[in-house]
Amino acid sequence: MTLATPAPPPARDAVSQSARRRTFAIISHPDAGKTTLTEKFLLYSGAVAEAGAVKARAGRRRARSDWMEMERERGISITSTVLQFRYRGHVLNLLDTPGHRDFSEDTYRVLAAADAAIMVLDVAKGIEEQTRKLFEVCRSRGLPILTFVNKYDRPGRDPLELLDEIEEQISLRPTPVTWPVGIPGDFRGVLDRRTGELVRYVRTVGGSTAAPEEVVEPGRAAREEGGEWERAAETCALLDEVGATFDEASFAAGEASPLFVGSALTNFGVRHLLDAVVDLAPAPGPRADLDGVVHPVGSSFSGQVFKIQANMDPAHRDRVAFVRVCSGRFERGMVVTQSSTGKLFATKYATSVLASERSTIDEAFPGDVVGLVNAGDLRIGDTLYDGDPVAYPPIATFAPELFASVRALSTDRHKQLRRGLDALDEEGVVQLLVDPVGDRTPVLGVVGQMQFEVAAHRLEHEFGAVVELSPTAYRAVRKTDEATAGLLRGEPGSRILARRDGTLLALFESEHWVARLESDHPEWCLERSVV
Ligand code: G4P
């Protein structure tokens, strides 16, 4: 008897390990199926034996932890989590964006730590509002995007119409890798354009275990599926003709998106998508620092803070900084330097963060996320390094869309309010805006209503200031300069506020109003990008 030689374990250096990593996020509108798909990823990776574990864990978490009362009261997850699992010898880091109906800047910032994104669309709905917003952030970061058209097991829209919608609405060129055979609701499977074969749709009861996969050669597919197969084959020929075929360069540039169809609920297409994450999505790559110097993944340790979470654990009242490793090997206990201050930071309490459950992490490689506990002085965007100094460009601040003025209900709480607002602004929970010349009442700027609620809750419970938030009528914002600000102060329906860093923002009651001002005064400084 001969014993097979086991494959040697992967080398533990940063270059070999980062080549095995894929760090990605899922972007979608609520209800498109992100949670279901996440659950199925874990099922297919063998991380859970039966689907349902993600929701079950969420239930357990709610029952067990009250690190943020609001999360428990509402049964939602306000903070992002990172799921790490193995698939085909690779380590996949799935950065989960908050799952609530309303999103926040955190959702955007998580994308700063990803190397790729999966855009999940509901076949009946197509591109929806939150998908579009998240997509814009991916585009601004040049992230490659894989598209998954979900819920094919039930009635939906014509797939060609969906392709047009994607291209027209977000200027992303879909390049289908699998194409549906049958219509949504009467789904027979997919034509895999790479092989020309039919992958038959087999329903699994409840989708709790991996779906069996039946691959059918084209001749038999034509006999068995008749007209439906012919229609799919004709459409694929048409797609070939118009060049809607996967192309690595345009995918990497974020211009074209390989598209897969399936049904997360019944597990169909899940494996295709996971394989695509491994085969198509990029491994962590070199990064340019502020001076344009490129740091390869194999250089000494560097990482960037992309999220700060305060008070995750009520027993400790601490702050956790989530750091994406950019280069080198992270080792728990190493002392790293914070680039913005030059201060040293001991990483004794590094954790991996899965929801609010922590486990100590001993080492991490490019693409991984490490949670650093007691990160009192760390700020979003900070670079940490060991060895050669490096500072990566800051993480973009996003244009707030909703504004509310804030005041303490009790007049003797001003100091607490001020301290609380400064802390929340630094953490990136809200953007603190103040009128540099007029009314000094602070204004909070956010991208999602939930951020107001989190801020009010934390101001009361952590800083001892019960506040009243008064929504304002402003709905549009532009970056401006001193000269234009001076002129705008005379205009009705607008207001000038300053960020902590001095950036001047002009707020308007409607986009329509801005458009008019822009056309009347083309010389004014009104930049749409407020970064
Ligand atoms: P989200 O995280 O993007 O908000 O979506 P989630 O996965 O929670 O899915 C939203 C709803 O859509 C869920 O139904 C889920 O079961 C359903 N769903 C997800 N994928 C598919 C699919 O491929 N086909 C069909 N038919 N449905 C799908 P629910 O009734 O809101 O919740 P539940 O009671 O099933 O948990």
Largest sheet: 8 strands, antiparallel
Give the strand order, joined by hyphens, for the main sheet: 18-17-23-14-15-22-19-20
Count of helical regions:
14
Shape: globular
- Share of helical residues: 25-40%
Domain module count = 3
What percent of residues are in strands? 25-35%
Q: What distance lies between the first and last C-alpha atoms, to the nearest angstrom?
A: 66 Å
Structural class: alpha+beta
Please tell me the overall pLDDT: 86
In words, what does this structure look like?
With 531 residues, the protein is an alpha+beta fold. It has 3 domains: 191 residues, P-loop containing nucleotide triphosphate hydrolases (Rossmann fold); 99 residues, Rossmann fold; 119 residues, Peptide chain release factor 3, domain III (Alpha-Beta Plaits, 2-Layer Sandwich), CATH 3.30.70. Helix content is 28%, strand content 28%. The strands form 7 sheets. An 8-stranded antiparallel sheet has the order 18-17-23-14-15-22-19-20. A 7-stranded mixed sheet has the order 2-3-1-4-5-11-6, sandwiched between helices. α11 crosses α12. About 5% of the residues have low confidence. The site of guanosine-5',3'-tetraphosphate (G4P) has 16 residues, from α2. The site of guanosine-5',3'-tetraphosphate has 16 residues, from α2.
